[in-house]
Structure formats: structure tokens, C-alpha cells
TrEMBL record:
Binding site for heme: 437
An example Gene Ontology molecular-function term: oxidoreductase activity, acting on paired donors, with incorporation or reduction of molecular oxygen
Protein's recorded name: Cytochrome P450 monooxygenase
Annotated PANTHER family: P450, PUTATIVE (EUROFUNG)-RELATED, P450, PUTATIVE (EUROFUNG)-RELATED-RELATED
Entry keyword annotation includes Zinc-finger: no
Record GO cellular component, one term: membrane
Species annotation: Trametes versicolor
UniProt entry tagged with the keyword Membrane: yes
């Protein structure tokens, strides 16, 4: 009886303490268990959908407490804008992570750097090199080149389309970042960067390391049983430093050999040259980090969209046909579509937009962390709270997108013009506020040209089964990691007309 009373007392205290702070309530959420909170409620698979289910029960902001750490998942686009855009000054930090700091990833990889001086420094580097005018002035030829490589690769080895999409992004980032040109059949750089990304992904899996929950464990000596996380962190740090140094040195070699092509590296080196002593060394250190960070943040994301493009076109032949008719009308069959054609290709533009909505590449964007206590709609949002926008849920709102699972570019067309209006997925797929993706212009231009040129010269269709009937492909995505990729699928890619192959080769 006494035990039962004590348990009830502690439960009541816990609930009161959890719910009340500064006289305000935390947003609603599942009740949880004393001490461990909602550790068992927190989804580990189909995460965005499960969060959306919680929101149906608790409302647009759902509160979780995991071992004392506050987490709020936002299920409403309007609330996300209100907090993450309008109050961006207070909502632009990133959560603490022992592993990210031990691996040094949070020292130089912009998406992971805590809000503050270092983040501002990196953000400036990205703004200067990847803003819209920079992309339009300097980097369109690079995108043309890697897209041309993609078309040639698809022509020669269509079945390996998935590998070719990865190549486009490796080639694009190496050429824009460092001025390094890689061959169409490159394996060396692709493997190096892919392996680096994989080992990084392996250490950032939430819940993998106990030290994230009990940071005091980081004081254990490396040889101590259970301190394997230190060895893992060292391996990752060494691997990244190695890739970072190798690429930087190679990029510099191109410049030393007289290359006059503008790259992110050449812009950075010009700035370093204006500094002296420690300031120059610091700028160089930050710049090498920013460059390798470009690959880490920019490749897998755009690759996931591009793979989804092949899946969508195989599944929706009528969309493909409509886009190709537009391309034939506007561009004709004697040349490839280019950036200048974009304004005259509203439907192709709409295909790109719908692609980014249909497969939400970062279903929960990246977590933001709150820098000071706040209040919204009568609810208390504590300093340090992790705030996650459920971007996937925004993209599936049936009020905004009727039949949200369907791939329908016509959602963005009004009077024959591309008018995404308040349905524009670009308003949320690239994140929010001061943390909004700085690579969005590069991603957009890359997706436009690769999709437009591929549609122009190829037909994409599902493979045939043993009976000669098209395989029924499904919109199935691997949604349980930070980036959502389509699950493996096959498709058939063939030149659209007899002269298409010559046009590609010309
Ligand atoms: C389809 C392509 C892409 C998508 C959907 C995407 C999406 C995102 C999202 C959701 C965030 C988090 C924003 C937030 O915290 O609110 C982000 C951050 C970031 N992205 Fe992208 N991204 C894409 C391509 C790229 C590219 C091509 C680059 C670079 C070349 C890039 C570089 C970055 C960086 C550096 C950050 C961290 C910004 C910061 O924390 O201040 N991204 N991106």
C-alpha cells in the first residue's frame, strides 16, 4: 500500500512538473512514464507518419520528453512558419550531440554547427558562394556538363541509372566546389565520398550510442569497456580529415596549374589572400571544412530527388507524355532544353516541384533547438527544447494537396502558367528561418536541367514481367533515416526517337 501511495505521489509530482513551467503548460503529448518520459512512445520506424498520427490526437504541436529532454514536433506549416521563420533568432540552434562533437563534425559541417560565431562564419561562406546570382553567373556550365555526362551514361548503360544519378552529384559538387573534373565512369571519387558519408551516417544514428543519453560517459578512458564510441568517433574524424585534405590539395593543384574557372574554392582562396596570419589560417581551416560539408549536405539530398524522378516517370506515363509534348513544342528536336527555356516550360517546372513534394527528401528537415524560453499559443517552449518540423505532414495536407499521394504537376498550373502560389513545396522542403538550406538554388537548377534534358531525349517506363506486362511499380520510400530515398526499383530507359542518341552525342 505504502509503495503504491509513494508511486502515485511521484507520478502526480512528475506530471505536474512536466506540465507546468512559468505557469504555462507544455504543448499536449502522450503522457509518458516517470523518469524515462516518452522513450517508448518515440517512433523508430515510419517516423514522420507516426508523428502525424500523434498530431491527429494531440494537435499541431506534440510534446515529448525523453529522459528529461524536451522535444516538440510541429505538424502544421503555419506553426512552423510562426516559430522557425518569424522567431528564427531564438529557434536556430542545433541539438547538442556528444558524438558529433567527438567526431568534430559539429565543428565544420554547417548543418550540424551550433548557432553562434562559427556558424555565422560558415553560413557567410555558403551565402557568398551558393547564392542565386553566384549559381547563375558561375555554375550553370558545370551543371550542363554533368547533365550531359548523365545523358551519355543513360544512353550507354541505362540499367545503371541509379549509379548515374549519384555520379551527377559527385561530379557536380567536385567541379563546383573544387574545380575537379571526374570521368564519366569514375569510381575513385565516388567511392571515397560515398564511404565517408556512410561512416558519418553510421555514427549519427539516433539512439545508437549510450553516451548521447549519458554524456558523462565521454570522460571514460578510451581503453575502458564500453568506450568503443571513442574509437568509432576517432575513425570518423580521421576519415573525414583525410577526404577533406585530399580534395582541398587537389583543387588547389588545378588552380596552381592555371585554371581560371570560378569555383567555390577559388572564391574562398581570394578571400584568404586578403587576410594575414591567424585570420588567414582560420579562414583556410573553415573553408576546407565548408567544402567537404557541401558534399555531405548536398549530394544525397539531390540524388534522392533525382531517383524519385525516374520512379515517378515510370509510374505516371501521362505526366511524362505531357512534359515531352511541351518540350517538343518549345524546344523542338534539334537541340536540348536549357536554362533559358525554363520560363516557357511551365509543365516541366511543375514536374520538378511535384517531385520534391512527392518524395520529401528530408521528412523532418533537420532538428532546430531553442535558444531561450518561449511561449506560443499559451504553451511553454523551454530553452534547449528540440523542435522538429514534420515537413512530410505539410506535404500531405489534403486541404492543400487533394489526393496527396498522387503525382500531379497540374496542382501548380493556373491558366497554363506555373503558379505554385501557397502550395509551393519550396516553402518548406528546404527548411526554415536562418537555417534554410543554402544549397537550394543549386539543387533547383540541377533538378530542372537533369529532369528537362532526360525527359526530352528518353522514354522512361516500368520493366516488363515474364508475361510481357509492365511491372506495377509502387511509390515506396526508405523513410527511416534523415534522407528519404526511393526503395530499389528497375526501369527501362530508351531514346525517344531515332535521332535522340545523335543529339545527345553531338
Ligand atoms: C533536393 C535537394 C535538397 C534538399 C531537399 C535540402 C534540404 C535541406 C534541409 C531541410 C535543410 C535543413 C534546414 C533547417 O534546418 O531548417 C538543409 C540544410 C542545409 N543544406 Fe540542403 N537540401 C538540398 C540540397 C542541398 C545542396 C545541393 C547543398 C549544397 C551544395 C545543401 C547544403 C545545405 C547546408 C550546408 C545546410 C545547413 C544549413 C544550416 O544549418 O545553416 N543542400 N537542406
Amino acid at each position: 500500500m505504502i509503495i503504491w501511495l509513494c508511486a502515485t505521489f511521484f507520478l502526480v509530482c512528475y506530471i505536474i512538473l512536466r506540465r507546468r513551467k512559468l505557469g504555462l503548460l507544455f504543448p499536449p503529448g502522450p503522457p509518458g512514464i516517470p523518469l524515462i518520459g516518452n522513450a517508448f512512445d518515440f517512433p523508430t520506424s515510419n517516423i514522420a507518419r507516426r508523428f502525424h498520427d500523434f498530431a491527429k490526437r494531440y494537435g499541431p504541436m506534440v510534446y515529448f520528453n525523453i529522459l528529461g529532454r524536451s522535444i516538440i514536433v510541429i505538424d502544421s506549416y503555419d506553426v512552423a512558419c510562426e516559430l522557425l521563420d518569424k522567431r528564427s533568432r531564438s529557434y536556430s540552434d542545433r541539438p547538442d550531440s556528444v558524438m558529433l562533437s567527438l567526431t568534430s563534425l559539429s565543428d565544420f559541417n554547417l548543418p550540424l554547427i551550433k548557432y553562434g560565431q562559427r556558424w555565422r562564419h560558415h553560413r557567410r561562406i555558403f551565402r557568398q558562394t551558393l547564392q542565386l546570382t553566384s549559381v547563375n553567373t558561375h555554375f550553370l556550365p558545370n551543371i550542363r556538363q554533368v547533365t550531359h555526362d548523365l545523358l551519355l551514361n543513360l544512353l550507354e548503360k541505362p540499367k545503371a541509372f541509379s549509379r548515374h544519378t549519384s555520379h551527377v552529384l559527385v561530379a557536380s559538387i567536385l567541379s563546383i566546389g573544387y574545380g575537379i573534373k571526374i570521368p564519366r565512369d569514375d569510381e575513385y571519387y565516388g567511392n571515397m565520398l560515398h564511404q565517408t558519408l556512410k561512416i558519418v551516417e553510421a555514427v549519427v544514428v539516433p539512439g545508437k550510442y549510450l553516451v548521447e543519453l549519458f554524456p558523462a560517459l565521454q570522460n571514460l578512458p578510451g581503453w575502458f569497456p564500453g568506450a568503443g564510441f571513442k574509437r568509432d568517433a576517432n575513425t570518423v574524424r580521421e576519415k573525414i580529415l583525410d577526404a577533406r585534405r585530399t580534395l582541398y590539395e587537389e583543387g588547389k593543384k588545378y588552380l596552381d596549374a592555371g585554371s581560371s574557372v570560378e569555383t567555390m574554392l577559388s572564391m574562398m582562396l581570394r578571400r584568404i589572400a586578403t587576410l594575414e596570419g591567424d585570420a588567414a589560417a582560420d579562414e583556410e581551416e573553415q573553408s576546407t571544412g565548408a567544402l567537404i560539408g557541401t558534399y555531405m549536405a548536398g549530394s544525397d539530398t539531390t540524388v534522392a530527388s533525382l531517383k524519385a524522378f525516374f520512379l515517378a516517370m515510370s509510374m505516371y506515363p501521362e505526366v511524362q507524355k505531357k512534359a515531352q509534348d511541351e518540350l517538343d513544342r518549345v524546344v523542338g528536336r534539334t537541340r536540348l532544353p536549357d536554362f533559358d527555356d525554363r520560363d516557357s516550360l511551365p509543365y516541366v517546372d511543375a514536374v520538378v516541384r511535384e517531385l520534391t513534394r512527392w518524395n520529401i527528401v528530408a521528412p523532418l528537415a533537420l532538428p532546430h533547438a531553442v535558444l531561450e524560453d518561449d511561449e506560443y499559443n499559451g504553451y511553454y517552449i523551454p530553452k534547449g527544447c528540440i523542435v522538429m518540423p514534420n515537413v512530410w505532414a505539410f506535404s500531405r495536407d489534403p486541404e492543400v494537396y487533394p489526393d496527396p499521394e498522387a503525382f500531379d504537376p497540374d496542382r501548380y498550373i493556373e491558366d497554363g502558367q506555373f503558379q505554385p502560389g501557397n502550395r509551393d513545396p519550396y516553402a518548406y522542403i528546404f527548411g526554415f528561418g536562418r537555417r534554410i538550406c543554402p544549397g537550394r538554388h543549386l539543387a533547383d537548377s540541377t533538378l530542372f536541367l537533369t529532369c528537362a534534358q532526360t525527359l526530352h531525349v528518353f522514354n522512361i517506363s516500368p520493366p516488363l514481367n515474364g508475361d510481357g506486362c509492365p511491372v506495377q511499380l509502387e511509390a515506396s520510400f526508405d523513410v527511416d533515416s534523415v534522407i528519404s530515398h526511393p526503395k530499389d526499383f528497375d526501369c527501362v530507359i530508351e531514346p525517344r526517337w531515332a535521332g535522340a542518341a545523335d543529339l545527345i552525342k553531338s
